[in-house]
From TrEMBL:
It comes from the Bacteria. SUPFAM superfamilies: Metallo-hydrolase/oxidoreductase (SSF56281). Coiled coil: none annotated. It comes from Metabacillus endolithicus. InterPro entries: MBL_Glyoxalase_II, Metallo-B-lactamas, RibonucZ/Hydroxyglut_hydro. The lineage of its organism: Bacteria, Bacillati, Bacillota, Bacilli, Bacillales. Its cofactor is Zn(2+). Keywords: Hydrolase, Metal-binding, Zinc. Residues 12-191 form the Metallo-beta-lactamase domain. This is MBL fold metallo-hydrolase.
């Protein structure tokens, strides 16, 4: 299994392609630039199987409909954000100058933690709320990576001043879920560079002294 980071959309949100040797892939958080993303996948003959959303803020969902229609694939989001995709007040887009973002409802709801299997892909879903009520992280044990969305960044954590945000809850999510992963686990965040669990345990100023 391999992965590729693609900053997309108005806030250059990290979209991730997680693919296997058959060139099948999962798309995590396609934040925008749908035509660009589709063109890249077609040029490299990569076949998407599903779209996974770490959460439903506008900068993570902008290309959802373009990609879903192109390959007729399902979109997964946590049940707590079921209505966010189509509601610009919930997904936050109405508060930004980029304009209202609204996409069709999700096809699959993540209703709790556990194993998510799609084709040959197997991911462990962890509920990591705090940045938003339905934030989740996807852990691929075999690949040694976790897609953390906007929960944990290199040297930082997600903002909690948006609707549904809760700072104390986010800190607990990070400590109880993400920091319990193997220290060598690579953290693939919604914004910025990759990091590791070990690095954040040692040097993230928002997590020290908890």
């Amino acid at each position: 299994m391999k992965w590729r980071q693609l900053p997309l959309g108005p806030l250059q949100t990290n979209c991730y392609l997680f693919f296997n040797e058959k060139k099948e892939c999962l798309i995590i958080d396609p934040g925008g630039d749908g035509k660009k993303l589709i063109s890249l996948l077609e040029q490299q003959h990569i076949k998407p199987l599903a779209i996974l959303l770490t959460h439903a803020h506008f900068d993570h969902i902008g290309a959802v409909d373009d990609v879903r229609k192109q390959w007729n694939i399902p979109v997964y989001v946590h049940k707590n954000e079921k209505d966010w995709l189509s509601d610009s007040s919930l997904n936050g887009s109405q508060f930004f100058m980029a304009g209202a973002v609204s996409v069709a409802e999700p096809d699959k709801l993540i209703k709790g933690e556990g194993k998510l299997e799609i084709g040959e892909f197997s991911l462990q879903v962890y509920e990591t709320p705090g940045h938003s009520p339905g934030s989740v992280s996807f852990y691929a044990q075999e690949a040694g990576i976790v897609f953390s969305g906007d929960a944990l960044f290199a040297g930082s954590i997600g903002r909690t001043d948006l609707p549904g945000g809760n700072h104390e809850q986010l800190i607990k999510s990070i400590h109880n879920k993400l920091l319990n992963l193997p220290e060598e686990t690579i953290v693939l965040s919604g914004h910025g560079p990759e990091t590791s669990i070990e690095q954040e345990m040692e040097s993230n100023p928002f997590l020290n002294g908890f």
